[in-house]
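Bug #77: duplicate submission created two jobs. Keeping one. Sequence:
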Amino acid sequence: MTEFVIEPGRQDIVMIRHFDAPPDLVFRVVTDPELIPRWWGPGFLTTRVDRMEVAPGGRWRFVNVDARGREWGFSGFYHAVVPPERFVRTWEFEGTPEEVALETVTLTQVDGRTRYTARSVHPTVEARDAIIRADGPRGGRESMDRLAALLR
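Kept job's structure:
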């Protein structure tokens, strides 16, 4: 089950999920461009990885494509990469390029499982709330469900 912490008046969204896999495996799967299309985004969209340089200063860009061929791009830069513990990157929906979020993903071993915590900090409360209104948590939940299935 994926948990979200979304407090009124704050600029952040925290997403937490526990996986029955060790942190090194989870880290490897979430940073492998060949595996991203198998879990990232809602299942009714396909994902294309245009770029994924998992290193400080590296760029990333994923594109969701619907059945009609419409595309939505997401991109950013990696700021820190500490395998298998965490990575920090900017995260931008290309439809709103002025609203860049900073995302920190932390993987912690807890009782033989991995606690995956993604905290995204948005430039304003309004920008954060727009993600909520666009049903971002649904997409995050579905991505985490797909990731859990892949890790199995």
